[in-house]
Design brief:
Shape: globular
Strand content: 25-35%
Distance between the termini: 8 Å
Strand order of the largest sheet: 1-2-4-5-6-3
Radius of gyration: 15 Å
Length: 159
């Protein structure tokens, strides 16, 4: 049985949803179904295009810590989701990618709706290569709350 090209499915799904009211929420739910742990933060895809991703997370009790701010791992989850969506949406056909590392710097307590953004390189081929992507997350006032570096390994989709 041939490998499923999840990249093509991701691109077609977002391209079909992005203009619909609530399309970003629906896309976030789909991502959460495919990656259940990511679903715990209830991401909303704001924008996704080749070389860029923007994902939001609303502040709610289930993502808060004992200090009444958003939990560190929820912030890391948001950064991973944003980098993964931006990067995989940008990959050439018949390519797969896997996260191999993630570092994060917590700059400020995170409260309220958060917006993560990732600008990334667009690989030209599906040759095995490593990429490092930066994700910056801001609060509603525009203050940076985290900076993350996601390490992705790219390779050809197995037949």
């Amino acid at each position: 049985m041939p490998a499923v090209d999840q990249l093509a499915i991701l691109q077609k799904t977002w391209d079909g949803l992005k203009h619909l009211p609530g399309g970003g929420l629906i896309m976030g739910r789909i991502v959460g179904r495919l990656a259940p742990y990511t679903g715990t933060i209830k991401p909303e895809v704001v924008e996704l295009r080749r070389g860029y991703g923007c994902v939001q997370m609303k502040d709610r009790k289930k993502v808060r810590n004992h200090l009444q701010s958003i939990h560190a791992i929820a912030l890391m989850n948001l950064a991973e989701a944003c980098s993964g969506l931006a990067f995989t949406y940008s990959l050439p056909e018949r390519t797969r990618a896997i996260l191999t590392g993630l570092e994060i710097e917590y700059v400020k307590k995170a409260r309220g709706t958060l917006t993560a953004e990732c600008y990334c390189m667009i690989p030209e081929t599906n040759e095995r290569s490593e990429y490092e992507l930066e994700v910056v997350t801001r609060d509603a006032s525009g203050d940076v709350v985290t900076r993350a570096n996601a390490h992705w390994l790219v390779g050809p989709l197995d037949k």
